[in-house]
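Quiz preparation item.
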């Protein structure tokens, strides 16, 4: 009898505890209407409650063991909802476009772009296979392209010429021919569009060189790898002549991309002494000996010539991709010599260099989104691997976020159209 009484008391206690749990459980509240739906309209209230309790007991066991286990650090509000006790919630500033737009730190606009145009002396345009969407333009096609870019808000263009082979030489004398292709084209662009566009020019010998180098090549074998040397000071003299010819034709900005030592100061003095104190100099300050230039060299046929005495690469004057502090040396020199803006080339693989220069100079910074970077995005987009519009605009935004004030990109006109939509 005593044993039976003890079992009765124990059973009553467990039933009371289970009922109390059911009353406070979400499972019981949720399941209660569902359980009642399965009962006959003629069933007794006692049977319905018994069935509900049994069903609730089963679900409470599952829910409490699997879903309702306490998580360390989380709390519960008075209504039972989970609460992460954190006052600062950065997501509040992202909750809708009105707020996101208000606090956005960087924006890309068409005014930030420099539009590079490949030009040649032929009578028709030629597609560049390694750069889909880019062409070597005729003179008239170039003029139309400039007008389309200006209409989209892109007011800066830069010219890159493909020069006929018969005009090339080691001294690249054609680069300063006042009646040459580029001076003539500059004059026509300025005549048609006036102050609505700034014409930039590339100051370097490689498009005009039969050696495929940015500088003159020595005839000796004293250079890297037993090849000829890139002559620094002799090249600077030619660059000064080239910059003067471009300025006289109407160029607004000259951009020495050669990486010769001392060329910024020499060009500044040459321009100033000839009355062109208002012509800007954008120095290719940190131009690296990069593998990302291949498509550009295809477009202009400006790669080093393997059959000549020239070095097989440009490593003796372009910067080593392994170096960053060296960029500060170049930046200090270019700034002291009179540069108006500093450029980093390539762009995306060198965002750290853009940031480094931004933090260490008061001059504007430009980034060159080079041909290899452009070709990679185009190839991925053609295969459907990425959304071209989204990745291109994100890429350009990354340059701004890293510190670039201006972006030289083959996407300039197309990106401007996207931004203007």
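Solution:
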């Amino acid at each position: 009898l005593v044993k039976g009484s003890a079992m009765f008391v124990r059973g009553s206690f467990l039933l009371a505890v289970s009922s109390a749990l059911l009353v406070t459980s979400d499972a019981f509240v949720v399941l209660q209407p569902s359980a009642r739906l399965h009962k006959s309209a003629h069933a007794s209230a006692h049977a319905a409650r018994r069935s509900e309790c049994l069903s609730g007991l089963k679900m409470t066991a599952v829910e409490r063991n699997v879903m309702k286990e306490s998580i360390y650090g989380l709390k519960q509000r008075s209504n039972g909802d989970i609460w992460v006790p954190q006052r600062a919630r950065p997501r509040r500033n992202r909750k809708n476009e009105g707020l996101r737009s208000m606090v956005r730190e960087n924006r890309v606009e068409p005014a930030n772009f420099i539009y590079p145009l490949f030009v040649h002396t032929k009578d028709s345009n030629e597609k560049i296979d390694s750069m889909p969407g880019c062409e070597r333009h005729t003179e008239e096609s170039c003029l139309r392209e400039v007008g389309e870019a200006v209409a989209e808000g892109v007011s800066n263009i830069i010219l890159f010429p493909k020069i006929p082979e018969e005009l090339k030489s080691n001294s690249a004398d054609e680069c300063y021919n006042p009646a040459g292709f580029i001076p003539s084209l500059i004059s026509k662009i300025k005549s048609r569009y006036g102050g609505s566009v700034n014409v930039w020019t590339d100051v370097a010998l490689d498009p005009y060189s039969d050696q495929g180098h940015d500088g003159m090549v020595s005839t000796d074998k004293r250079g890297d790898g037993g090849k000829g040397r890139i002559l620094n000071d002799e090249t600077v003299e030619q660059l000064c002549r080239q910059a003067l010819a471009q300025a006289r034709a109407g160029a607004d900005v000259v951009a020495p991309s050669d990486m010769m030592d001392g060329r910024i100061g020499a060009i500044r003095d040459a321009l100033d002494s000839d009355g062109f104190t208002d012509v800007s100099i954008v120095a290719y300050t940190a131009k690296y000996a990069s593998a990302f230039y291949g498509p550009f060299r295809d477009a202009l046929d400006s790669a080093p010539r393997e059959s000549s005495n020239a070095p097989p690469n440009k490593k003796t004057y372009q910067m080593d991709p392994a170096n960053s502090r060296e960029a500060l040396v170049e930046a200090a020199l270019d700034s002291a010599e009179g540069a108006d803006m500093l450029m980093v080339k390539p762009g995306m693989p060198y965002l750290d260099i853009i940031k480094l220069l931004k933090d260490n100079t008061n001059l504007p910074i430009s980034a060159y989104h080079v041909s290899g970077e452009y070709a990679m995005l185009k190839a991925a987009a053609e295969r459907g691997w990425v959304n071209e519009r989204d990745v291109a605009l994100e890429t350009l935004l990354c340059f701004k976020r890293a510190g670039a004030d201006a972006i030289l990109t083959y996407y300039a006109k197309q990106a401007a159209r996207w931004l203007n939509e």
